[in-house]
Amino acid sequence: MYIDVRGKKAYAATGGKEFDPTLPTVMFVHGSGLDHRSWALQTRWFAYNGYSVLAPDLPGHSLSEGDALESIEEMGAWLADFIRAAGVDSVHAVGHSQGFLDLLETARLSPELLKSITGVGTAGAIPVNPALIDAARNSAGDAAEMLLMWGFGPDAQYGISAVPGMQPIAIGRQIMASNPLYEDLVACASYENGSAVAQSIEIPAQLILARKDRLTPVRAGMAFAEELNARVSVIERYGHMLPIEAPRQTLQKLRELIGGLEKAAQEKG
Amino acid sequence: MSRSSYLKPDTVALHSGYVPESDHGSRAVPVYQTTSYVFESVSEGSSLFNVEQGGHIYSRITNPTVAVLEQRIAALEGGSGAICTASGMSALFTTFITLCSAGDHLVSATQIYGSTATLLKHTIKRLGIDCTFVPINDEQALRDAIQDNTKMVFCESIVNPGLEIANIPGISAIAHEVGIPLVVDATFATPTLCRPIDHGADVVVHSVTKWMGGHGVAIGGAIVDGGQFDWNKSGRFPELTEPYAPFHGIRFWEEFGPSALVMKMRAESMRDVGAAMSPHNAFLILQGIETLNLRMKQHVGNAVKLLEWLQQQEAVTWTNYPAMESNPSHQLAATLFPDGAGSMLCFGVVGGRAGGAAFIDSLQLASNLANVGDARTLVLHPGSTTHSRLTVDDMKAAGISEDMIRVSVGIEDIADIKADFKRGFSAAQRVGEAA
Predict the structure, then answer these.
(1) A residues 239-268 lying closer than 8 A (beta carbon) to B
(2) Which of A225, A221, A200 is nearest to A211 (CA)?
(3) Contact B262 A165 (CB under 8 A)
(4) Could you tell me how far CA B38 lies from the centroid of its own chain?
(5) Which fold has domain A2-268?
(6) Quick one: average pLDDT of B167-172?
């Protein structure tokens, strides 16, 4: 569906069902250069199991209008406006890689909008190699090649796919090469608020990390989980692109946290 | 390296789509000879049916062995995904009926495989889908043939049996100008020699029965989604961009983007038409693909050597191979097929139709049969077999003459192939002299 945010049309996937703001809502935020399709194998489950789903494309990405936002702080503020524009009071928020940094900023600005925050394949800061930024400045396609070579774990490099018949590297390449990857990478490289935000928020949090992650190594995620006082899971044998590479395991961890919090809220009345 | 994999093609052919499975560590891809798959719970079954998670339900839709082959072919071609089908013809039919509905139209090259011509001219016409045929690489004719309801352009990368080369970059540019995809049958080329997606094609179709399998033991087809075509921007494909009622109103483009087409084919055609590849055939074709690149080098090398030798034979009246200067598309062959333009060649023999028959009937090593792309050398007289349903005019338009001998050059020792053909030429010459 499309939502008007700051006068521009923002696309949000709803998991294949009509969005119902009266249901508990889970919001999924994609990583650098990606879009809502990163979450294809999580959003439909939530949408068909008692939740409403919002998986927006950030401005300038895939199906959303507008120019790319230039900083993580701006993205976090935009997400707060997006949640309000969707007409929901608060959401369980899930972010992959850069998407989690965006959510840290949303949490800093408007903690009342977030019931929980989950980071997938991420850390409190995501340094980016200057050579990658240079490549992205010249060609999103070339930078996508570099990112995907490092981003996908060994199984995906050998053509293994959670969806029979698919090749995730080609799908990721196609999406990234058409999106403002350069702006996203610059925003990631510049972001330094992670630790400060971690100490200032009291939202239930978890990190789902990948043992073979070469972009946000597991040790960086573990260290940040401690700062954030977050529950943490490490999924073996997969790489940075966890929502695509290990969709079942990622979904299971999301169901455990979000389902547990919703159940507790219902019991509390 | 292709758009789908950072491994080199020789490695992709051996490894992509499979790592030794956890239960038994089988190094070879196992044959999952099963119709169906046990759900862990009612909830899991429901989520599989609703595409909430990936996995297998029923082997008409997906099968683990077939999926390895699909992922391997997608990686070889540089596609976002692939579907394997029961045959090359079912791959074509699936592609045509996924992209076109009653009232739609497509444009095809005139020079195509005889059964494909029949499918386009007669079978899908009964379903209300019209086709206009234009000479391959005639850009003006292609532009003139495109209508408001045209949904795709179709050609073969190496034409069967005329052996012209499709100008894939040129044809795709014209198709893309008006927002329609180019579908290329790349059976004669294989991804070893040319990857059409790299040159602008949007969908690639194969009869994997041929060189991909390579041993003449299993029938199968494949459809590769290039993932680059913007179905939404085109505005001609509501089947992919608007809610699809039989699947909870799913919008394939919104949900799956670069894999929208292959997901639609899986959800609709494999479910409703059911032209599924058997797991055992997938296994056999996988064995062939493991040596595809090695075989193609030998196929192409033998084809070139045989061509040069044929050109010196008195009994040979003409020869045709895509890289020959007399072939109108030889420059395209040099550009699009730098490692060789396949292993098919055609020639005429003295004695016309009777001479051709005598040639074929006297061969011992080469087999006279209706297949190509076997490791063994195969010969055929198209005018009396594969293209016999065509009228004389249609045969001419398809580049076929009555004296044409089609050769699928195998990987035997070239000296033995020449010796066999020499025997055939003696027979043809006797017929010619008698006439």
Answers:
(1) 247-248, 251
(2) A221
(3) yes
(4) 34
(5) Rossmann fold (3.40.50)
(6) 98
Tell me whether A157 touches chain B (CB under 8 Å).
yes
For residue range A29-51, list pLDDT tens digits in order: 999 999 999 999 999 999 999 99
pTM of the model: 0.95
d(CA A160, CA A166): 8
The pLDDT of residue B364 is 97
Query: Which residue of A2, A9, A167, A236 to mutate against B (max B Cβ within 10 Å)?
Result: A167
In this predicted structure, what is the pLDDT of residue B398?
Answer: 67
- Pairwise CA distance, residues B156 & B189, whole Å: 9
Q: Where are the domains of chain A?
A: 2-268
Biggest distance spanned by C-alpha atoms of chain B: 78
- H-run or E-run covering B253: helix B252-256
Residue B140 pLDDT > 80: yes
Minimal-distance CA residue of chain B relative to A142: B3
Residues whose CB is less than 8 angstroms from the CB of residue A266 and which lie 6 or more positions away in sequence, other chains included: none
Which amino acid does the sequence have at A12? A
CB-CB neighbors (< 8 A) of A160 in chain B: 17-19, 71
Query: Per the structure block, which two tokens stand in for B169?
Result: 């970059």
Q: Do B71 and A166 touch (CB under 8 A)?
A: yes
CATH number for region B10-288: 3.40.640.10
Say whether domain B292-434 belongs to CATH 3.40.50.720.
no
Count, residues in chain B: 435
Q: Is B137 helix (H, G, I), strand (E, B) or coil?
A: coil
Nearest CA distance, B249 vs chain A (angstrom):
7
Peptide bond into B161 cis (omega under 30): yes
Comparing alpha-carbon positions, the chain B residue that sits nearest to A15 is B255
Above 90 in pLDDT, residue A143? yes
- Parallel, antiparallel or unpaired: strands B81-85 and A8-13: unpaired
pLDDT (mean) for B235-250: 93
CB < 8 Å from B in window 96-155 of A:
149, 154-155
* Pairing of the two strands B130-134 and B105-109: parallel
Nearest chain A residue to B250 by CA distance is A16
